[in-house]
Amino acid sequence: MSAIPADAGPRPGSGYYLDRALVYGIAVFFTLWILVPFYLIALSAFSPRQAVFDYPKPLVPTDLSAETMAFFTNSRGVLPSVVNSLVVAVLTIVIGLALGAPAGYALARFQFRGKESFSLLILATKMFPISILSIPLAVTFLRLGLYDNVLSVALVHTAMALPFVILVTSGVFVAVSNELEEAAQTLGCSRWSAFLRVSLPLALPGLAAAAIFTFVISWNEVFAATILTLRNRTLPAQVLTTLTDSPLYYKFAGGLFMVVPAIVFIFFMRRYLLNLWGGR
Amino acid sequence: MASISVDHVVKSFGKTPALRDVSLDTRDGEFMVLLGPSGCGKTTLLRTIAGLERIDSGRVRIGDRDVTYLPPRDRDIAMVFQSYAVFPHMTVAQNIGFGLRMHRRPPTEIRSRVRDGAALLGLVPFLDRFPAELSGGQRQRVAVARAIVMDAPVLLMDEPLSNLDALLRLQARADLKRLHREVKRTTIYVTHDQVEAMSMGDRIAVMRDGMIVQLGRPMEIYDRPATQFVGSFIGSPPMNFLRGTFRDDRFVGEGFDLAFPKPADADHRSLLVGVRAEHLVLGSGEIPARVAVVEPLGAHTLLTAMVGTTPVKVQVPIDTPVQPDDEIRLGVDPALLRWMDEGTGAALPS
After folding, report:
1. Domain residue limits at B18
2. Is the pLDDT confidence value at A1 over 60?
3. Taking the domains of chain A in order of start, what are their residue ranges?
4. Whole-angstrom distance, CA of residue A210 vs CA of residue A203
5. Lower Cβ count inside 10 Å, N or C end of chain A?
6. Co-location of B289 and B184 in the same domain
7. Has residue B232 been placed in a domain?
8. pLDDT band at residue A4, thresholds of 50, 70 and 90?
9. Any idea what the CATH number is for the domain that residue B74 is in?
10. Range with the lowest mean pLDDT among A2-16, B133-147, B183-197?
11. Is A178 in CB contact (< 8 Å) with chain B?
12. Are B74 and B205 contained in the same domain?
């Protein structure tokens, strides 16, 4: 590439600042779009029960109280369902990565007959919304007698998350040069240990990204979980089935409660994601 | 103790042949260069020796062991890759010590050998840095140090200098040659750069289309190319070729009619005669020519002269008074002419 003279390129004129203002304006708008509902939910969840019906709503917390949250968490079935949800999500990540990462690796590293159609087929399954996929999957599981336990829900969630995991991890492994693995092999590694010591550490950010999305898919999934479970409900299934006959403040508390673990999880995984995207 | 013997090796990628029955013996401690244009199979041959490619038929021996079916780690080799393949998630010290760790050497030994290797390549100040913090030349040296500390009797290098800029390449070339003299490993070095091959190799194997077309010491190959391809691939400028036939003991081609001594077996066939630019002498020779281009290059001047319709490069002293369109005469020692069959490109026996 040729060097760019110092005086070339757009000078920051009025148009430039207008552009920046527009970009930041849009960014702020979308941030508020996401954050304001969170804030209102959190506000209601941490206000006394009757405050939910206050009008006009105070935008700053007037009297904070854990009473509403306590009511929600103490409701029957909520705590076990939280545990179920976490177990399902973790199982989904483990099974999803165990099955999906090798498939992604194979797509990235090997040439084989039908490779193109295989990746297209994987992508094609993502063209259906999860809610459409979840019903036939759940029905299949019911027929197989796999239901009302965390494993069955985790398997359905794995089926939903798998295409995503495969496509993301194959992209990740393509980015890790094959020469690095070959170098490790000439230095005393077997194929397997070359993968473990070189490709895997370098792929971790991408695998973390796949894990995050798998977690979110599993944590939010409600259709299959509702159909498949009766006594061992996941949190979304629990909240959904009790929603119609619950008071409004229960809904706010439930909403907040479902958001928080996802935020915490993403907070910890963020580091790897930013690595992946080239930040620090 | 670690000669390398490649014996009738055949390898193809799908329907594309990469190596067609290649045999090559490299002596213990020798610096062998595989030279050829891209796609000639030189890298495939190197990877075959490293064990990174499975061959279709043939044998590969290192020392007195048949390694044909052994994985790379059991072959007692070390390799430097074209992209360097330095591990980005390890420091320089961890990179250099990686192979030793894989071979479960004791930590104290690893530490001292990493230090020695780093010292040999001037990397001591960078031991705690990550590759992203190094320049291209430093990364290249990390890759070499990582291979050297293994103490493997065989060192394989795949175009290790091709990603360096010209000035750095000159320096690194001399460094590698010094290194080879100091560590005395049997080395196979792949390059497409004929200057690298000439300056570094004990012997050069010139490859084309998956075959070795000539094997010999650098000056042998330079002076007596086995084919037209070798003559035009090696040397800068490449060898000049004139096409013609012998008529009544005169070599006749398009626009020239020269009194060259007739080689044996030269009748009734179309011939090429090859001559190096520096072997043509400006003065009162038997070849009439007309100057087309004059290029002063500092150390000498390069003329492009037309012999009939064929452009010929001539190397003359820098202060030679010639102008474009000058009529000149060129002389040549007949012993320095290289005769080839025009159809096959192969040199005539002489």
Report:
1. 4-227
2. no
3. 15-69, 77-276
4. 11
5. N
6. no
7. no
8. very low
9. 3.40.50.300
10. A2-16
11. no
12. yes
Q: How many domains does chain B have?
A: 2
Residues B241 and B213 in one domain: no
Kindly report the CA angle at A164 between A161 and A168, in degrees rounded to 5? 140
Q: Do B83 and A179 touch (CB under 8 A)?
A: yes
- Nearest CA among B9, B4, B32 for reference residue B20: B9
Q: Please give the Cα distance from B20 to B210 (Å, whole number).
A: 5
Contact A183 B71 (CB under 8 A): no
A39-61 average pLDDT score: 76
Contacts of A180 in chain B (CB under 8 A): 85, 87
**Averaged pLDDT of chain B:** 93
Q: Model pTM? A: 0.80
Q: Is the dihedral of CA B43, B48, B52, B53 positive or negative?
A: positive
DSSP B171-219: HHHHHHHHHHHHH--EEEEEES-HHHHHHH-SEEEEEETTEEEEEE-HH
- Rounded to an integer, the average pLDDT of A228-235 is 82
Task: Say if residue A44's pLDDT is above 70.
Answer: yes
pLDDT beyond 70 at A277: no
CB B329, CB B314: distance < 8 Å: no
Residues B265 and B172 in one domain: no
| B242 and B214 within one domain | no
In a domain, B349, yes or no: no
ipTM passes above 0.90: no
What is the token pair recorded at A262? 């996802």
* Residue B346 lies inside a defined structural domain of this protein: no
Give yes or no: residues B209 and B245 share one domain.
Answer: no
Residue type, B135: S
Specify whether B50 is located in the same domain as B190.
yes
Task: Decide yes or no: CATH 1.10.540.10 for domain A77-276.
Answer: no
The candidate with the shortest Cα–Cα distance to A228, out of A167, A165, A139, is A139
Give the pLDDT of residue A237: 84
- Which of B171, B192, B227 represents a domain boundary (last residue)? B227
The full length of chain A comes to 280
- The gap from C-alpha A133 to its chain's centroid, in whole angstroms, comes to 18
- Quote the minimal CA–CA distance from A165 to chain B in Å: 23
Query: B110 and B252, same structural domain?
Result: no
Give the residue from B196, B227, B258 where a domain finishes. B227
Any A CB within 8 A of B279 CB: no
What CA–CA distance (Å, rounded) separates B144 from B146? Answer: 5
Å between A280 CA and nearest CA of chain B: 14
The predicted-structure confidence for B149-165, as pLDDT tens digits, reads as follows: 998 999 999 999 988 88
Least CB-CB distance to B81: which of A183, A188, A202? A183
CATH number at residue B332: 2.40.50.140
Residue with tokens 């190094």: B134
- Over the stretch A124-166, which tens digit does the pLDDT of each residue have? 877 777 677 777 877 888 888 888 888 888 998 898 889 889 9
φ, ψ of residue A37 to 5 degrees: the values are -60, -40
Pairing status of strand B31-35 against strand B186-191:
parallel
Q: What is the pLDDT of residue A182?
A: 95
Determine whether the interchain pair B99/A187 forms a contact, defined as Cβ–Cβ distance below 8 Å: yes
Question: How is residue A195 annotated by DSSP?
Answer: I
Q: Considering the domain boundaries, does residue B348 fall inside one?
A: no
DSSP element (H, E) containing A83: helix A78-109
